[in-house]
Amino acid sequence: MTLLVVAEHDHQTFKPSLLQVLTAAQAIGGDIHVLVAGNGVEAVARAVSALPGVAVVKLAQGSHLEEGNAENLAALVKMLAPGYTHVLAAASASGKNWMPRLAALLDVALIADIVRVESADTFTRPIYAGSVWATYRSTEAIKLITVRSTAFDALSAGEGQAPLEPVEAGKDENLSRRVSLALTASTRPELESARVVVSGGRGLGSAERFHALLEPLADKLNAALGASRAAVDLGYVSNDYQVGQTGKVVAPELYIAVGISGAIQHLAGMKSSRVIVAINKDPDAPIFAVADYGLVGDLNELVPALTAALPAA
Amino acid sequence: MKVLVPVKRVLDYNIKARPKADGSSVELSGLKMSMNPFDEIALEAAIRLKEAGQAAEVLAVSCGTQASQETLRTALALGADRALLVESTIDLQPLAVAKLLHAVALRESPGLVLCGKQAIDDDANQTGQMLAALLGWAQATFASRLELKDSGEAWVTREIDGGLETLAVRLPAVITADLRLNEPRFATLPNIMKAKKKPLETLTPEMLQVEVQPRLTLLRVSEPPERAGGIKVADVAELVDRLKHQSKVL
């Protein structure tokens, strides 16, 4: 078996999720090749080649690959896929965008968002917002898989020396172009890879209080900030903070839910966290059913008290 | 321009899904079914394009059992002009649905397909992208804003990791709706009555010459691993102490 893992990157470095996708690839077994596609991404490819367990790094470069355009990336991977038994990528906004397109181009079914590798052809994935897990077997010649990165441990560090092999970059499908890109500037860790996440909900009451109460707590813990759908809908924070079925799925070491009642759709995005703390005034809030430690009371008093009780970061 | 909107009948948003006792599938019998919420958002976007004079006709399409007629009647009550059911009792997986929609699109020649980004039952998030590939069209997924330009492009703002991206896609295209594209309307009683008279056509995969057998074998469904129940702590001091000494996360 030979597997192709498609690396996600920002043109400077590969995304941390690559280390988790590689762990999933190792659980499947076989030789692992990694594709780095972009423009001016030699440094990313070199960093990938130093990862343990990577046999070959394929490097595809062209201006039409610079923006991670789904049409061009799917067309490129379609050319490479026939040499592989499996193609894997992270189930991120990017992977979810281009991988199904590749699947249709290859006339192959895709198993999306896996949380477990049962064997080389059998995988488990959550359905119904994580209320149920479904286990599927694929008899397709090429198994296409997107990986829920937070369900796998990151590959432990090691030394690799994979050769770099340039490959044909394909052509520009010329179906779409990027007009603008507005990335949220933040000095905090990324939500999906942070060790600690502090998340706020409707109970915060206003955007001002969301930031006034949660930012100092997040500062102390060097945490990423998250939010429930209600908090996003109420305009406390922008949509890329949303944790849940339709937002980001996180599994940090510590998840602190403040003023979040715990709708199924929110729990779907955070219940795999190692330790969950819930702070809520309603003792019957469903969030307490998944919380390791629940604190019932007024978050306006409890959150500053918690912040003050923590050692400085 | 004609806008095609695929709609799926799914277990209602407010009901917690459970596996059947034998683990063969999810228990659906006797439970409330509704239109997939993301499809409602896509449909709303299509209806607004029609109201703005940018679309001539809204065609709702569903692939599934006869019961999906109910979902299509809802689509008609909300403002779709016409409905089409591709009737099948087979478990239709995303690639099969994409192929059926591809066949329908070849027959209907829409200028735009507006889908929900995912169905809340299988959470697959695949069908729209697959359809775009089969048609050789551009795709713009996870749309939170949509604007049709006179140039024959759609400008779509997409919710991506870390922020927002705006794409200009050449039409015809497939666009998939995210949560914040709009807030769908409710059907009014007069419109529900009127919807009963709107045309609803039924086709089959055989008529469209599409092979829809499942490509993946569902071995079992199960409850996810349960979290062990936690405790309520008395105060902040106890919380910090337990985080430090019990779970050792601080």
Describe this structure in a few short sentences:
The complex is a heterodimer of chains A (313) and B (250). Chain A is α/β, with parallel strands linked by helices and 313 residues long.
Description:
Chain A has 313 residues and is an alpha/beta fold. Chain A has 2 domains: 2-166, HUPs (Rossmann fold); 191-309, TPP-binding domain (Rossmann fold). Chain A has 9 helices and 16 strands. Chain A has helices spanning 17-28, 42-49, 70-80, 93-106, 207-221, 229-233, 264-267, 287-290, 299-309, and strands at residues 2-6, 31-38, 56-61, 86-90, 110-114, 116-119, 122-127, 132-138, 143-147, 164-166, 176-183, 196-200, 224-227, 254-258, 275-280, 293-296. In chain A, helix 3 packs across helix 4 (93-106) and helix 5 packs parallel to helix 9. The longest helix of chain A has 15 residues, at 207-221. Chain A is elongated. The model of chain A has no long low-confidence stretch (mean pLDDT 95). Chain B has 250 residues and is of the alpha/beta class. Chain B has one domain (2-222): 3-Layer(aba) Sandwich (Rossmann fold), CATH 3.40.50.620. Chain B is built from 6 helices and 13 strands. Chain B has helices at 37-51, 68-78, 94-108, 127-135, 189-195, 236-245; strands at residues 2-6, 9-11, 33-35, 57-64, 82-87, 112-116, 138-148, 153-160, 163-170, 173-177, 200-203, 216-222, 231-232. Chain B has a 9-stranded mixed β-sheet with strand order 9-8-7-10-6-1-4-5-11, sandwiched between helices. Chain B is globular. Strand 11 (176-183) of chain A pairs antiparallel with strand 9 (163-170) of chain B, so a sheet runs across the interface.
